[in-house]
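I would like you to sit down with the pair of lines that follows and say whether tokens and residues agree.
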Amino acid sequence: MLTLEPALRRRSSGGKFALALAGGGPLGAFYELGALHAIEEVIVGRELTEYDMYVGVSSGSLLAAGLANGFDSTRMGAAHIQGESALVPFSPRLLLQPAIVEYVRRIARLPRALHGSARQWSADALRSVWPAMLGVLTKIIPLAVFDSGPLERYLHELFTTPEHTDDFRALRAQLRIVATELDTGRTVVFGDAAHAQVPISRAVIASAALPGLYAPVSIRGRDYVDGALVRTMYASLALEAGCDFVICINPLVPFDASHGRHRRKLADEGLDTVLGQTFRTLIHSRMQVGMASFRTRFPHADTLLLEPDRHDELMFFTNVFRYAGRHRLAEHAYQQTRRDFRAHAKALAALLHHHGLDLDRRKLNDPRRTFATAAHERAARVRRTTHRLADALGQLERALTRTTGLD
């Protein structure tokens, strides 16, 4: 679903471009990657890696950090979808390492917790033993199922490869990664003047630390969790910074089960489905309130919002921890984004024109294109470039040999 919000009045010249990527766990990240790939192919005039500002929340922060670091959607797709990377190999296992240290730390608290509950119960023997036992359980239940350490190490290694950086201050563009400070509930923006010295990799795992799955991330003695707990998308950060063209991608919308091919009651799908629908509904309603105010608060800006359709069963029920699930979801998002662009092609082209951009209708209308097409095209270009370089080096070597022979 594509929503265009043209500016009420545009500046005569100049302007900055921004991307705002919302959270949504692994499912959201793979959806956003497919959508970004479609954008990168058909909106021409400036590469997505050449925008002026990137804002990322939760899983969206990983893609925002990648783009700000010069990794386009093709390279990120090769690494995260196809599992192919010439720099640092990626595996979904990085996201699923058990939080062993957290388990051990919590188990170590068991003797003290039992002792405290026994004292509490002995002081009031008539009191039921169950409240005391529940008190024990709440103190020893691990804060996380998975360990975010492997992902942080992967990102740090990736961002410190040649021509990339793990330092906000060394980036060409502005990068803002949003997290929530656990003890206060306030929003913290990594990358701004007060938090620019925090490594990008550390900021990303803090922003994506969904409570229950990943433990809070400690930075300078403060604990941080998922940035989406306050708001799911912080496009306002880009608009407040003076950006005139902002593309927003929100992968999480409430699912409308009444219009699918197979109507179903979500309550019959289990607790995780009910909680997922509840979370989606809460964060989406907050996002809508914020987006509704942008046109009057920022009358000079054009905004473009991409979201899944509300009856999109694939988006709601895909298992992204399987290779086929990741690939299918990215391809689905890629094709859905292209479909939405075709449906709004005239209005979209007019909006892009104001910013010196064009819509590549040839690629947009090519039914043969897939998420993997650009990867194949890039590989072919690399092979051609490599062959030309090898030929040039061979000619140079032969010329030097002839010159040496003459001497």
In short: Residues 203 and 343 are 37 Å apart (CA to CA). The mean pLDDT is 80. The chain has 15 helices and 13 strands.
